[in-house]
User: Fold this.
Amino acid sequence: MKKTLRLILGDQLNERHSWFSEVNKDVVYVMMEMRQETDYVTHHIQKVTAFFSAMRAFSTEIKSKGHDFIYLKINEDGNEQSLIKNIKKIISEFSFEHFEYLLPDEYRLDEQLKQLCEEISISTQAVDTEHFLTKRNDIAEFFKGKKQFLMENFYRKMRRDHDILMNGKDPVGEKWNFDHDNRNKYKGEVPIPPAYSYKKDVSEVVEDIAKAGIKTIGTIDESNFHWPMDRRQALQFARYFCRELLPYFGTYQDAMHTEEKFLFHSRISFALNSKLISPKELVEKVIEAWEEDQDKINIAQVEGYIRQVIGWREFMRGIYWAKMPDYAGLNYFGHDRKLPNFYWTAKTKMKCMEKSIKQSLSESYAHHIQRLMVTGNFALLNMTDPAEVDKWYLGIYIDAIEWVEITNTRGMSQFADGGIVGSKPYLSSANYMHKMSNYCPNCHYDHKKKTGDKACPFNSLYWNFYNTHRDKLEKNQRVAMMYRTWDKKSNEEKNELLTQADYYLNHVDDL
Ligand code: FAD
Assistant:
């Protein structure tokens, strides 16, 4: 075999990859911590720490199995801080004759690696990461010729193709979707098990980040850094989820609570996205837990969870590869407003926003409904430039990697893709917030008031949004109802709502 260099990126920590099935003295693996990855947006300190720590643990594990490994730390002498420069330098220094890399999940890195392969004179090969259930282009093939990509159709195909929760040709429980049984508000009916965590000393990595002068947001200390850093810990996280949280996952999937940051969510996204654990083994564990104890875990919980992992997650990846690079510039509504300052400080009187942002800054985590119906919803009502929204989401969350961030943010949350991911914008007034959370009773604003002193901003901004974008939304059957309701309002009421919204938009940083 030719003397081969194999590149592993920081989100490709798949110990079970066939690359590692045997030790080959002609193969050297390389991983590197680089400023090009820490600086493309301002990341949360926990995100940078988690990636560097998990990468270091991964290299130690692979080395312990006898593989040859080059690992470049962030402050190492000779680290060029750029993927292309580092690889070129290593190839020439050690006279490698062949270069291989695992297919990246980000378009940006895919382009860089293609460019590198054109520029070097040795043979090259790109290899699958053996992580996802689908290939990059499966979704594009599946929806070929279709204007809209329906997640539900894709999800059913995934269930059939992989024989997951199937009784022959029929779905287990005789329904594909149990959403109707889920979506409860959490009122403390069942206790929430403590957040699973480990004591981890990441001080060396945190010091390295500080020494390098990397700009970060958010906070890190022993009490708020919970993330699994290696495969063993990721598997323990998954087991804990199946045993303790899955029984109520679906029921409270959409609930929000001032005192409960994680509710029954699995917090497995970092482990999944860095590939410490695979979606296939996660789903197998969930099904195993359900089969072992169907009295404790019902099908609605299991189906609800599996849809997220084999449905939404793979669907978003497929859309990303079908639509990039254009997707990153889509702005259907032409929004151009700035993201309000309180997204960076949590200093706002809106309780739902304050709680969701504060938690994001301290934990590098918010659950799906907080991201979609609180911070995402407000950014949309504020008519924020989607590029600003992307930057915030990409930086702040532990699990944010562009393929899954941008499709959720620009697509699902901001409808900037004009309806590729979702069939209508996810918008709500204070009604939804009050229905699904306990934020409103503790808020400075009155969720019942639409105008006047202390009227909840979500209410007037909601109607203002529909009014402003009538030309783009009126013909959408899924929102036509809103226009019928709006048209029934008196001119006086409409004017009051629009004046209130205008005031709030002009004073958004004071809300
Ligand atoms: P759980 O609620 O326990 O769900 C289990 C798993 O399902 C998640 O870990 C995740 O892998 C998968 N999943 C659930 N919903 C989605 C979804 N819509 N898209 C893709 N996978 C999903 N997820 C990311 O992994 N990275 C992101 O950068 C990201 N950005 C988001 C931005 C916005 C505006 C929104 C609305 C959602 C975003 N999501 C993102 C999806 C989802 O919010 C997170 O995956 C989830 O909150 C992670 O927490 P968890 O592991 O506790 O998830």
Remarks:
- The chain has three domains: 4-127, 138-202+227-323, 342-510.
